Amino acid sequence: MDPVRWKIEDHTRAKHRVLRSYLDAWIPIMGYQSKKAYQPDGPPRLLLVDGFAGPGTYLDGEPGSPLIMLDALLSHASLEKLGDVIFLYLFIEQDPRRVAALKEEIAKLEVPANVKIHVEPGRFEDRFSELIAKIKGNGKSLVPTFAFIDPFGYSSASMSLTGSFLDFPRSEALFFLPLSFVHRFVGRAGQEATLNSLFDGDRWREAIPLSGDDRKSFLMELFEEVLSSQGQVKHVASFRLNTNDGNDYRLVFATQHEKGLDQMKRAMWKVDPISGISYSAKMNSGQEMLFSLDPDTGPLLAELKRAFGSRWFTVTEATEVTRPTPFVSDSHLKRLTLAPAEKVGVLEVKRKDGQRAGTFGDDVRMRFL
Ligand SMILES: C[S@@+](CC[C@H](N)C(=O)[O-])C[C@H]1O[C@@H](n2cnc3c(N)ncnc32)[C@H](O)[C@@H]1O
C-alpha cells in the first residue's frame, strides 16, 4: 500500500464538490467585501485553511482538497479583478511524506503574486491553536477565514479549538464528521477524553443507552447544538455522505452569516438536487447529474404548515422558518413552494389590488386552508 496517497472514494468526490461549489461563491463575495472594508494594516487579506491537508493528490491523480481550494481561486473569473486582495492559503499536514508530496504538487502551479501558500508540517490542533493564540496575544483579529477540517477520524477535531477560532468575526468552518465511528465509539472504554473534546463536554454519554438511528440522531443533533453555541456561530448546516461500505459521514458547516449559510446550502443542493441534504455512493457516482431534477419542496411545505397552522403569515415570517431547513428561501420558497400551494388551493393568499396571483411581495398575507 502506498504510504502517502490512497484511492479516492466516491463520497470524497461528493465532499470535494460541496467544498468547491462553496468556494466558487465564497471567493468573489469575500474578495469584493474585503476590498470595500477599511484596511488599516495594508491590502485586504483572506485566509483559507486546510487543517488536514493530505498529499494534494489521490492515487490515480485526482486533486485533493488543497488543490481544489487553490483551483477555485486560480480558475475563478474574478481572479484578475481581485488582484489587490491577498489570498493566504495555510495547509497543515502531520505526515512529513504527505507534506513533501503536497509541496511538490503546489510547485507545479503557476500562482500570481497575491496568492501566498504555506504548507505547515505538524498537527492541526498544535499549529492552528498556536496561530490563534498568537493573534489573540497581539490583540489582533484573524482576517476573514474559511477553514476546512477533514481528519481521517475524529480524534483531533477539538470543539474548544473550533470555538476559539469561530470567535473571530467572519470566520467559518466546514467539518467532516465520521458519524458512524462516533456512533460506534460511544460506550467503548478509552474513548471518553476524545469524545469529551469532540463534544466539548460529556453530554454524549446520554447516547450510551440509545441504539441504531436514535443514537446517531442524538449525537448529530448534539454536535450541531454544541457547534452552534461556539464563538460567534449563528448558523449550522449539515450534509450526509453515505459511503459505499455503508458508513454515514457528515459535512457540517458553521458560519456567522446568513449569506454564508445560503451559499453553503446552494453548494449542497448541487450535489443533491432533489433534497439538498445527502449523497449516497450507492446511488450516485459522485459526478454531476447529467439531467436536472426538480427539488422536492414537500418537506418545506410541511415545515411551514407545522409552523403556522391556519394563522396568517407573511413572506418574511416564512423566510425565517425556511432558514434552519436545508432549503434556500431565494430558490425554493416562493416559486417552488408557496406558488404551487396557492395553485392547488391549500394556501389562501391576500394581495393588494393589481398584484398578480403567484407573486409574493412583502405585503402579501397568506394562510393554509
Ligand atoms: C482525510 S485525509 C485529508 C484529505 C484531504 N483533506 C482531501 O480532501 O484531499 C486526513 C489527513 O490528515 C493528516 N493528519 C492526521 N492527523 C492529523 C493532525 N492531527 N493534524 C494534521 N494532519 C493530520 C493525515 O496524514 C491525512 O493526510
Tally of strands: 10
Distinct ligand kinds: S-adenosylmethionine
User: How is the largest sheet built, in terms of strand order?
Assistant: 3-2-1-4-5-7-6-8
Strand coverage percent: 15-25%
Number of helices: 12
- CATH level-two architecture of the largest domain: 3-Layer(aba) Sandwich
CATH topology heading of the largest domain: Rossmann fold
Rg over alpha carbons = 22 Å
Q: Spans of 5+ residues with little confidence (pLDDT < 50)?
A: none
| Structural class by secondary-structure content | alpha/beta
**Overall tally of domains:** 2
Mean pLDDT: 92
Largest sheet: 8 strands, mixed
Termini separation comes to: 62 Å
The dominant shape is globular
Report a brief summary of the structure.
The protein is an alpha/beta fold and 369 residues long. The protein folds into two domains: 10-280, Rossmann fold (3-Layer(aba) Sandwich); 298-368. The protein has helices spanning 10-36, 65-74, 96-107, 124-137, 159-165, 179-185, 192-199, 212-228, 258-271, 298-308, 315-322, 329-343; strands at residues 45-50, 86-93, 115-121, 145-149, 171-177, 235-242, 248-255, 278-280, 347-350, 365-368.
Structural account:
With 369 residues, this protein is of the alpha/beta class. It has two domains: 10-280, Rossmann fold; 298-368. The protein has twelve helices and ten strands. It has an eight-stranded mixed β-sheet with strand order 3-2-1-4-5-7-6-8, with helices on both faces. Strands 9-10 form a two-stranded antiparallel sheet. The longest helix is centred in the first third of the chain and has 27 residues, at 10-36. The protein is globular, with a radius of gyration of 22 Å. 37% of the residues are buried. The mean pLDDT is 92. The structure holds S-adenosylmethionine (SAM).
